[in-house]
Design brief:
The complex is a heterodimer. Chain A contains 14 helices and nine strands. Chain A is an alpha/beta fold. In chain B, the strands form four sheets. In chain B, strands 1, 2, 3, 4, 5, 16, 17, 18 and 19 form a nine-stranded mixed sheet that branches. Chain B has a five-stranded parallel sheet with strand order 9-10-13-14-15. The chains are: A alpha/beta, B alpha/beta.
């Protein structure tokens, strides 16, 4: 694996390896000195064609904890309006000897273009492209779910997947790269996903996805659920008649106080509530839900750094192992050279 | 005009029986088995024992980009590509800059075509001023101009206003014109990037739904029926469109339809690469659509193949999918793609090929001396094809300026060996020969 572009083609073994490595990386974050020498002398470029402070600083923190040099390259707006093409930007970074390019782009497929065009040799990590994919978000979501799921079942999380976990992803699936990446990854990890959305916010063709689809959040909750992921809904969707009003949206598809109470009524005491952020409190999620003990919103942010460390490390210094790894371990790799232990 | 004589020796006429064809003074002067020396005289002999003779291909849908985008294509480069592809006439679409919406612009394009001398260039006139859909262009003036425009189209943009479409259909009846519609409901395709369906859902690219094409075609065939006029549907791309056109033809509505080579061969699966060479409007569709289009072309529901040759400079494709221009080159691959999809599959004969690439497009465009049968006394617009040849498509060797061929690297059958344009060999031995030079004002060529 040279690049991380989406989760559709990510095998179970690679996904679990990334999660296991992230678990080792998370231990680093708990140390007093939060730094590993693994990527010393390597250059990671954060190439952001779209604003996203949260994702950028998460990648920046990840790269710095691995001792990489970090260059932030913000190219806001379209390459066309800016006058410089993606190709020229890529070749500029290549000339600066970037080892990895973390790219966030408004256009679906831009990371794939970068990776497959021959313009650049660096490893390409997709940090969110248009409405296509956001693989590190899906991996951090899966990491968060796995910690929870392992704790419940009492089995070590290292090497484990999400077999049998029931997950609802609710909201604007149509425009969501987070949903797209989660559906494929969670399928690969053995979870059962149900998408819940107004019909207008589901893509034509969703019937081919490896998940169930429902228009009824309450009925889906009643069927039992272990994790609920609420997607951000942008208010401007209302203007394009995807739904009549934000109030109607919140009533039918928002995770409000009544639905929070429903979880208690159904005795679903271990069900977690997730959100990729930033949240629209009062629209897709109520404040009570967002701040409840069930909420994993801040854990997701924390895990984001660990997962991105793992991805950077594995693409740049480690080797993405095949299913049967040989016993030889990389001596310069303190993270994977550590005996795996369960840190959850 | 040169009085050079050419003898095409023992070509398979429309893929059938073999005959010699003698060409002189721009017309076929003799046709038959083993023409004797007293007939042949000093004619240059072309050995065609392995070749098929077809009427020169007529494209109803070509973007020559001149005036305005000479970086993408010129009349000269585009018509060289046409000749190499086996064409003897092309219809130059109106979306140039300035738009071909006045007699002046269509006459300019017409003149450039005559000066180039590779094929007949028949300008298409815009339906509305500036393709803006607000006001009818001077259709009558373009029809009466030296370019004698008969095909009108806002191609690239749909004449979406139903009243405007009705008026246009009615008005062109005055001079036997036809409206060639780019069927695309604009509101249903805002920001559209690819076919809406299974693949777009995964790729996160905004969908271009089949219904956006089909709803316009349904409306337009009913309008054509209502005002008893002639409608041509450009680049039909969906199985549903085929059903509507079939229904309209059964009711006797005067509608013709076109399919592009790329919609006969390629599917939306190619978009998974995010390579914008596969970005085109209307978009590549599903395999079920491709199969329906092939069947419709074979059974006559779709009348013709039109290339929608759309060259772009490389920077328009070397970018993100969403930022890339839509369109593909097609003139130099059309014959091979149609052979691959329609003839190698047994769906059509070479005689059918001649009908859909020459006879019928010439009739729709009212081009009187093109698309004619290969008979004595007919204009010598002839293409010689080696059907057994196979070649890997190399876009860098093409005459078009566009390098945006979606067929690049594919191995396809068929090769144009020679093209005769009003008796003059524009292509010989598979290579460009010389353009046809007009001498004197009485030689009116395409008129």
């Amino acid at each position: 694996m040279r690049h991380l572009l989406d989760t559709e083609d990510l095998s179970r073994d690679h996904a679990v390896q990334i999660l296991d490595t992230a678990q080792e990386m998370s231990a680093v974050g708990e140390r007093e000195v939060k730094k590993l020498p693994a990527l010393r002398g390597r250059t990671v470029v954060n190439l952001f064609f779209e604003d996203s402070t949260r994702t950028r600083i998460s990648f920046e923190a990840a790269a710095k904890r691995l001792s990489a040099d970090v260059i932030n390259f913000t190219a806001k707006g379209s390459s066309v309006s800016k006058g410089e093409s993606l190709k020229d930007t890529a070749q500029t970074l290549e000339a600066m000897s970037a080892d990895a390019v973390v790219i966030r782009h408004w256009a679906s497929g831009a990371p794939a273009r970068l990776a497959n065009s021959g313009w650049i040799d660096a490893a390409v990590i997709n940090a969110g492209d248009g409405t296509h994919a956001h693989p590190t978000q899906a991996l951090l979501d899966a990491f968060t779910m796995r910690s929870h799921w392992s704790k419940l079942s009492g089995i070590p999380s290292v090497g484990a997947d999400l077999k049998g976990m029931r997950i609802i992803i609710a909201g604007d699936v149509l425009h969501s790269r987070v949903a797209r990446s989660n559906v494929w990854l969670l399928r690969t990890l053995g979870a059962h996903v149900t998408l819940v959305a107004p019909p207008t916010l589901l893509p034509v063709g969703v019937e081919h996805w490896p998940c169930k689809v429902s228009y009824d959040l309450d009925a889906t909750l009643e069927a039992g659920v272990d994790a609920i992921m609420m997607l951000r809904v942008q208010a401007e969707r209302m203007k394009a008649s995807f739904f009549p009003s934000t109030r109607e949206y919140a009533r039918r598809w928002g995770f409000d106080d009544a639905r929070l109470a429903t979880l208690d009524r159904l005795n679903l005491k271990d069900t977690i509530i997730m959100h990729p952020g930033p949240m629209n409190r009062g629209l897709e999620i109520s404040s009570a839900a967002a701040d409840s003990v069930r909420s994993t919103v801040l854990a997701q942010v924390r895990n984001g750094v660990s997962v991105r460390m793992a991805v950077l490390y594995l693409l740049l210094a480690g080797e993405i192992r095949d299913p049967q790894p040989n016993s030889k371990q990389n001596p310069t790799a303190p993270a994977t050279a550590m005996p795996a232990k369960d840190n959850s | 005009m040169s009085s050079a004589r050419y003898l095409i020796r023992s070509a398979s006429i429309l893929g059938g029986e073999r005959a010699d064809i003698l060409i002189q003074g721009g017309i076929i002067t003799a046709l038959g088995e083993d023409l004797g020396n007293e007939v042949i005289g000093d004619a240059t002999v072309i050995d065609a024992r392995t070749l098929i003779a077809l009427p020169g291909m007529v494209d109803l849908h070509t973007h020559l980009r001149e005036p305005g985008r000479e970086d993408a294509e010129t009349v000269e480069s585009g018509t060289r590509a046409a000749a190499l592809g086996g064409f003897t006439a092309v219809h130059a679409m109106a979306n140039s800059s300035p738009v071909a919406d006045t007699a002046g612009v269509v006459e300019q394009v017409y003149s450039l075509g005559r000066e180039s001398g590779w094929v007949d260039v028949r300008p298409v006139g815009a339906v509305t001023v500036g393709l803006a859909g607000k006001q009818l262009a001077e259709l009558g003036a373009m029809a009466d101009s030296r370019a004698r425009v008969r095909v009108f189209s806002d191609d690239g943009i749909c004449v979406s206003d139903p009243v405007m479409m009705r008026r246009a259909l009615e008005y062109v009846k005055a001079f036997d014109g036809v409206i060639a519609q780019h069927a695309q409901e604009p509101r249903l395709t805002e920001g559209a990037q690819m076919n809406e369906g299974k693949v777009s859902a995964v790729l996160g690219l905004a969908g271009w739904p089949a219904v956006a094409e089909e709803s316009i075609i349904a409306r337009d065939v009913l309008l054509a029926q209502h005002v008893d006029s002639r409608l041509h549907v450009c680049h039909v791309s969906t199985a549903g469109s085929v059903e509507i056109i079939r229904w309209a033809k059964e009711r006797g509505i005067n509608v013709t339809a076109e399919v592009t080579p790329h919609h006969l061969l390629l599917t939306e699966e190619l978009v998974r690469s995010y390579n914008p060479v596969y970005k085109v409007n209307p978009p590549l569709r599903a395999d079920s659509d491709v199969q329906a289009l092939r069947k419709a072309l074979a059974d006559g529901t779709i009348d013709i193949v039109g290339t929608d040759h759309a060259p772009h400079p490389s920077e328009a494709k070397e970018c993100e999918w969403a930022a890339a221009a839509m369109g593909m080159t097609g003139l130099e691959t059309a014959l091979s793609v149609v052979q691959e999809t329609m003839i190698e599959t047994g769906l059509m004969s070479w005689a059918d090929f001649a009908r859909v690439t020459s006879t019928t497009p010439a009739k729709i465009g009212r081009v009187v001396d093109q698309g004619r049968p290969l008979n004595v006394g007919e204009p010598a617009n002839i293409v010689l094809v080696d059907p057994a040849a196979r070649r890997a498509v190399d876009q860098t060797l093409m005459a078009t300026k566009g390098r945006n061929s979606p067929f690049a690297g594919m191995e396809l059958p068929g090769k144009v060996v020679a093209t005769f344009f009003h008796g003059h060999p524009t292509v010989l031995d598979g290579r460009l020969n010389t353009p046809r030079r007009l001498q004197g004002a009485t030689q009116t060529g395409g008129n």
